[in-house]
Amino acid sequence: MSLLELQDVEVAYGDLPALRGVSLGVEEGETLSVVGANGAGKTTMLRAISGLLRPRAGRILLDGARLDRMPSHVIVARGVVQVPEGRKIFPGLTVKENLELGSYVAAARAHRPQSLERVLGLFPRLAERQRQAAGTMSGGEQQMLAIGRALMARPRILMLDEPSLGLAPIIVQEIFRIIAEINRLGTTVLLVEQNTRQALSLSRRGYVLENGRIALEGTGAELLGNEHVRRAYLGM
Amino acid sequence: MTLLEVDGLVKRFGGLQAVGGLDLRVDAGEIVGLIGPNGAGKTTVFHLIAGFHAPTSGAIRFKGASIVGLKPHAICRRGLARTFQIVQPFAGLSTLDNVMVGAFNRVADVAAARGRAIEIIELVGLGGKRDVPARTLTLADRKRLEMARGLATGPELLLLDEVMSGLNPTEIDEIVALIRRVHATGVSLLIIEHVMQAIMALSHRLVVLHHGEKLAEGRPAEVARDRRVIEAYLGEEVSS
Question: B29 — contact with chain A (CB < 8 Å)?
Answer without folding.
Answer: no
